[in-house]
Amino acid sequence: MITPLASPPAVETLTIQPVGDRWRITSSDGLFEGVFTDAKSAVRCARAEAEAHPGHVLMLAEPA
Known about the structure:
This protein has one helix at residues 39-52; strands spanning 12-19, 22-27, 33-36, 56-60. The protein has one helix and four strands; from the N terminus they run E-E-E-H-E. By secondary structure, it is α+β, with helices and mostly antiparallel strands. Strands 3-2-1-4 form a four-stranded mixed β-sheet, covered by helices on one side. A hairpin with a 2-residue loop joins strand 1 and strand 2 (22-27). The longest helix has 14 residues, at 39-52.
């Protein structure tokens, strides 16, 4: 028997932004962040993090 969750998981947003020649991931709750040398690595890490936590959403910011 599968028991439903008492409440839905909190929604957290993972944002990937360019910072100089690096790419930075931050979570809206401030508990996750990382800096990467290329966008592909940053997206791969953020996608894995989002998939590991129900309710996380991945958002890619447009370069300024």
